[in-house]
Write a structure and sequence with these properties.
This protein has 303 residues and is α/β, with parallel strands linked by helices. The chain has helices spanning 16-29, 47-50, 52-68, 79-94, 96-106, 119-124, 128-133, 168-175, 194-197, 199-215, 226-234, 236-243, 254-261; strands at 2-5, 32-35, 73-76, 115-118, 142-145, 179-180, 220-223, 251-253, 278-282, 293-297.
Length: 303
């Protein structure tokens, strides 16, 4: 299936491993990804705080370029990028006068034909029986599925059916062989962009998330957002100082777990790039799957 692909800024920098894991699983799940040519930053979490029209123009240009290329759907991995693109598409489709103004500003016609799809939604919409058949190396570990803010808010563009207790990622993890835990922080905020200006706030908010996941027996936290991954992974030293406790539990992208369950190599999925590193070993003798991967946080990662 041909799909447009908008990696966004994070996936070419701090979340390079997310991009690598998506490109690794794409042919196995039937995605033919075509990167949107000449794409620009979507404005992230900053532009809409400064200038409303700029915050619309940046995503609108990406969408207009996708339309021009004949791409009916755009796969967007970053939850913040998805929020900006999907929100802009909805606002401009609902307001013809604003749509015309933004089209003139970006010097491209925008109609809203190209649909914006998050990776979580795209995976959930696959034939689940066919997907499950590809999981030849089940990921037999307890995981905390962390959705954060952008996958469930605002409701008009949410990727999840249940805002307070989403299940889409949990269902995919079960299919991949994992055991999602029942926990209290799956949609709580990690601190988002405050990671730059108020590390103390992020250490507190993300620390509560990590602590609850660990207390309930999770062996890994699974995310689908580069900002969430950064706050839970990169900021682990600050979290541990704040909580006065060490948490070796790694943070994996949804697509990395999917890839591991399909038997792909750790390196092809970018696991060596994590700040809380991940190593994989064979399960103990006598368990159900003696060769299933085991995720264990081990120390400083390679980038």
């Amino acid at each position: 299936m041909r799909m447009g692909y908008f990696p966004g800024c994070s996936l070419e920098g701090t979340a390079r491993e997310y991009d690598e894991s998506i490109r690794a699983i794409a042919p196995l799940v039937g995605w033919e990804l075509e990167e949107v040519a000449d794409w620009n930053c979507c404005g992230a979490s900053a532009a809409h705080c400064l200038n409303h029209k700029l915050a619309l123009a940046l995503p609108a240009r990406i969408l207009a370029l996708a339309e021009k290329a004949g791409l009916e759907e755009i796969l967007v991995p970053c939850s913040a990028c998805f929020n900006r693109l999907a929100g802009t598409r909805r606002e401009l489709r609902d307001d013809p006068h604003l749509r015309a103004e933004i089209s003139e500003l970006i010097e491209l016609e925008f109609t809203g034909r190209s649909k914006v799809v998050h990776v979580l939604t795209a995976l959930s919409q696959l034939d689940q029986g066919a997907l499950a058949a590809k999981f030849t190396a089940p990921f037999h570990r307890k995981v905390a599925c962390y959705y954060g803010c952008y996958l469930t808010r605002p409701g008009l563009i949410s990727t999840c059916r249940r805002a307070e207790d989403p299940q889409e990622m949990d269902e995919l993890m079960r299919a991949a062989g994992a055991e999602p835990i029942d926990w209290a922080f799956k949609v709580e905020c990690c601190g988002a962009g405050l990671s730059v200006t108020r590390v103390d706030v992020v250490a507190d908010l993300s620390g509560r998330i990590v602590e609850d996941a660990a207390r309930r027996g999770a062996e890994a936290i699974v995310v689908a957002c580069p900002m969430c991954h950064s706050n839970l992974d990169l900021r682990r030293p600050e979290i541990e100082r704040s909580r006065r406790h060490a948490y070796p539990m790694p943070v994996l992208y949804l697509t990395q777990v999917i890839g591991l369950a399909m038997g792909l190599t750790e390196r092809s999925l970018g696991l060596h790039r994590h700040f809380v590193p991940v190593r994989f070993a064979e399960r103990e003798a006598g368990t159900t799957d003696a060769k299933a991967p085991v995720a264990v946080g081990t120390g400083a990662g390679e980038h």
